[in-house]
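Give me the 3D structure for Nucleoside-diphosphate sugar epimerase.
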Amino acid sequence: MKVFLTGATGFVGRGILERLQAEGHEIVCLTRTSSTGKLPYYETANANITEATGDLFDKESLLRAMQGCDAVIHLVGIIREQPGKNILFSRIHVEGTKNVLEAAKQAGIKRFVHMSALGARENATSAYHRTKYEAEQLVQASGISYVIFRPSVIFGAGDEFVNMLADLVRLPVTPVIGDGSYPLQPVARKTVADVFVQALSRPETTNQTYETGGPEPLSYGQILDAIGEAIGKRKVNKIHIPLALMKPVVNMMERFPFFPITNTQLTMLLEGNACKDGKLLYDTFHTEKIDFLPGITTYLRTK
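Predicted structure for Nucleoside-diphosphate sugar epimerase (303 residues):
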């Protein structure tokens, strides 16, 4: 199968690209000019990758790159807005997806596999989740056979989330906002890559949406403890910071790129991010259940 892939140079995209190669697919990767030549395995013996320069807002480049493709895997998304650069949730998630879908219809694409987010819903508190939901609605109304995945936090070698938390855990005292009881359901990048690639050719998954999490939910506090164990720290000394104290700090500092959290991210963290029906994914797709602690130990111990 010939697959058009967006977001190939990102953390998740690299895992999916590797999986597509392993399955023998031909891949056309959309890359911006600034990312040209950054594809893993590009210009190697694996000749089944083509790099197509363009972006989500150059409709001609999208249509040109999709010619002859059978399917699209659309991964591009942002977790943090940069208004000064016109990098906005509504623009990337909604307008960008609309452009990809329009090009896909013109190019005769038969299958559209879409990356959404766990927690996407119409009445979400965060603009991130609301725009992810809007993008889902566009995919569902497109008339193209689709599969939508809603992943929780994704972990794996080179991730940002777990590695950032590991840096905090290495400190003498680790700050925790609130009581740390809010749940997450971290899922391995390998699992995400497995299900995305399988969805290209599994007819029973057509026009379905799947919550995509690890085998079990963990509280934020449990995640910190697991990271501590993975890096060999006997005890994670946590200091709990009340939300009432943290909120003004985030309001003041989120405009600076170096500050690790925004108001949107804080809202999403505190409301939790666990699957309502995480079993369905593993009942439907052939993929290993990778628990969080052994999964992160494979790469945190090597640092």
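The longest strand covers residues 145-151. Let me know if you want a second pass.
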